[in-house]
Amino acid sequence: MAALRPYQSKVLRSNTPDPELWLSMNSDDNSEMPNGGWVSTLMPRQSSSRPRAALISLVRNSELPGLVQSMSQLEYHWNHKYQYPWIFFNEEPFTAEFKAATQNLTSAKCYYEVVPEVHWSTPDFVDTGRFMNSLEYLGAIGVGKGWMVSYRHMCRWNSGFFYKHPRLAEFDWYWRVEPDVHFFCDINYDVFRFMQDNNMKYGFNMNILDDARSFPSLWSRTRSFINSHPDMIHPEADLDWLLDASNGGDYNNCQFFSNFEIGSLNFFRGEANERYFNWLDRGGGFFYERYGDAPIHTLSVALFVPKSEIWYFNDIGYQHDINRHCPPHSAGRCACEPTSIDENFYKLVPLESPQKKPDDTCIRQFLGGEWVKKRDGWTRSEERGSGGDGYHGYEMTGLE
Q: For site-directed labelling of 143, which of 14, 96, 313, 356 has its Cα 20 to 30 A away?
């Protein structure tokens, strides 16, 4: 099977981290926590220190059953071996029942934190009347959760505040876990050590489209930031996979599905990301539109991180609502049926949304190279003429 990492035309330097080599040498749980101790195996470019990392979840008391499901599966498939702490966040205090139930699921330390009120309220610069009109309008046209005030606060907190919480000050890495998700596969390496040793900044599991009616001004606002802060853009930034050349170079609405993300807290704390978030926030898009953390994280990572420091965790089986990913060749390790690489491409885009889909699926545009090659003789127009969606002409399905 082809490598599931972005296509690179340049020869790698000898001191460049090699994540595939790392996985081949470390995918045997040789750094798990036996009897609470830390074991370090030695290999080139591998760090010897245990990552300062945590599993984090923004969750309500009422979502306890869904969180028990998510937490139980991730503990069973992975964290019982590594015992990374869990940190739960809520806009109100957690109940004794919630604390007892979650702590009973893990031998790792659990923390229960309240989101500061200033991070879960409407800022003074927002026009309340315009905000209320936005809730009514987006709800009326069918934008998902467009009418919910709490959803706006959640998206804003996940976009620009979670990494500022005092509880996370002692940590460098996080894995976001939501209630009511599924983890299908045994994971036989330390994902945080993988990120740390290979100098990764962000890891994702799905790369899909969302309803562009949620954030119509996001790209114009981002372009104005780029024009005003050209010095902040990483010299190796790659935005090509996010821009549609056939649509005037506009944002194609592809995004990392951020309910699963493993990332560097230090990246998000950095000046570039912080200034970008503040630029978007002051424009009011979380309230006058329905800016989501997924496209914002995606654009921030693309602007300020080289592609070589973004990782596709294709080997982790995962499901969130209707979006489901299961890796190929995983019988015996995963309790799911393998899915094609394009399985979730536009599931979140309602039929009534007029947005133009990009020429290639989001994950293929990110990976590039042989992943965008088409079969000889195939044409999109012929496929669509016979009732297809125009995305089944690729040489590779991801199931090889």
A: 313
